[in-house]
């Protein structure tokens, strides 16, 4: 009887620990990623081709947040010792940068937000195919069948969206946008599998991964500096709003009248929510398989 009670107590404690780890992660993914979509839609509705600025803002903010933890700040800043070889992070950051840029660029080619969300659900089949051929993974038949059914739904939604586009120019843009999304899905699948292998080999250092995946990518934005400059001008020309009229913000500012273009507020919300979303995704990658992560990401799109 004593052994049985001890086993029950151990199981209960283990379940409580697992729940305490998973609930905050799920909250970050569902809360951060979902709110990120609303802010993203607000931006691309007014400035369709502002993807590079959005991506740069996200990467710069997440890098700034991680600086105190990963950089010795002094007269000569230097990186703190790493748990994972920097070569691993460089491969990941290249894939992650490509995924972010491709997904945001696709929004400028007649790709609606709903289609953008649904189409990226095909990451399940891409993850499974890449895992099978690249990582020599094997999956149960029921799991494979479920993934195929989700993929069929994605294809139907994609064809329906393109079929509704009759103008030749818009049709061409849709094809380009879907091509960009397809390439992004493949890169995302490879990134997820590579992250999974890295965490299995070197440990669950997801905060280090979050920082280096964004910090190492910042120089790549030099290739898009002209586009980013034009996009900054476009956001600055949006209608101004008084910050004092916003909930919570007004209580902090009091009677101070501070006006800013409202699209900059949307960008700020997008960046903050992306930080929460990326933190949850990186943490979950260190706790589960890449395929499990894809399933959770698909559930939050429903």
Low-confidence stretches: 13-18
Q: Provide mean pLDDT, rounded.
A: 77
Secondary-structure element order, as H and E? HHEEHHHHHHHEHEHH
Q: What share of the residues does DSSP label as strand, in percent?
A: under 5%
Can you give the helix content as a percent range?
over 70%
- Distance between the first and last residues' Cα: 46 Å
Query: Biggest sheet: strands side by side, in what order?
Result: 1-2
Can you count the beta strands?
4
Q: Helix count, per DSSP?
A: 12
Classification by helices and strands:
mainly alpha
Could you describe the largest sheet, including whether it forms a barrel? Answer: 2 strands, antiparallel
Which term fits the overall shape?
globular
Q: Provide the gyration radius in Å.
A: 21 Å
Fold topology:
Layout (H helix, E strand, L loop, with lengths): L1 H45 L4 H20 E2 L5 E2 L6 H21 L6 H7 L3 H11 L7 H23 L4 H35 L3 H10 L9 H12 L3 E3 L6 H5 L5 E3 H26 L2 H10 L3
Antiparallel strand pairs: 1-2, 3-4
Describe the structure.
The chain is mainly alpha-helical. 75% of the residues lie in helices and 3% in strands. It is built from 12 helices and 4 strands. A hairpin with a 5-residue loop joins strand 1 (71-72) and strand 2 (78-79). Helix 2 (51-70) runs antiparallel to helix 3, helix 2 crosses helix 11 (262-287) and helix 3 runs antiparallel to helix 7. It is globular and about 60 Å long. The model is unreliable at 13-18 (pLDDT under 50).
């Amino acid at each position: 009887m004593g052994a049985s009670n001890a086993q029950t107590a151990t199981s209960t404690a283990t379940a409580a620990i697992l729940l305490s780890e998973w609930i905050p992660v799920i909250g970050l993914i569902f809360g951060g990623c979902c709110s990120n979509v609303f802010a993203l839609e607000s931006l691309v509705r007014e400035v369709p081709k502002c993807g590079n600025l959005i991506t740069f803002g996200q990467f710069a903010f997440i890098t700034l947040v991680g600086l105190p933890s990963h950089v010795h700040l002094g007269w000569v800043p230097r990186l703190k010792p790493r748990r994972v070889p920097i070569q691993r992070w460089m491969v990941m950051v290249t894939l992650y940068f490509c995924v972010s840029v491709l997904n945001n660029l696709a929004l400028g080619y007649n790709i609606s937000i709903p289609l953008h969300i649904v189409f990226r659900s095909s990451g399940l089949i891409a993850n499974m195919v890449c895992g099978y051929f690249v990582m020599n993974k094997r999956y149960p038949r029921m799991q494979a069948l479920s993934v195929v059914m989700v993929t069929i739904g994605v294809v139907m939604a994609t064809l329906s969206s393109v079929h509704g586009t009759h103008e030749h120019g818009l049709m061409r843009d849709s094809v380009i946008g879907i091509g960009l999304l397809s390439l992004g899905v493949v890169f995302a699948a490879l990134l997820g599998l590579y992250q999974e292998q890295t965490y299995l080999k070197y440990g669950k250092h997801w905060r280090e991964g979050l920082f280096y995946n964004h910090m190492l990518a910042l120089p790549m934005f030099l290739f898009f500096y002209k586009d980013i400059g034009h996009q900054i001008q476009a956001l600055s020309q949006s209608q101004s709003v008084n910050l004092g009229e916003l909930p919570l913000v007004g209580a902090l500012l009091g009677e101070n009248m501070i006006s800013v273009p409202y699209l900059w507020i949307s960008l700020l919300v997008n960046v903050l929510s992306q930080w929460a979303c990326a933190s949850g995704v990186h943490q979950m990658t260190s706790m589960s398989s890449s395929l499990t992560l894809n399933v959770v990401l698909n559930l939050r799109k429903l």
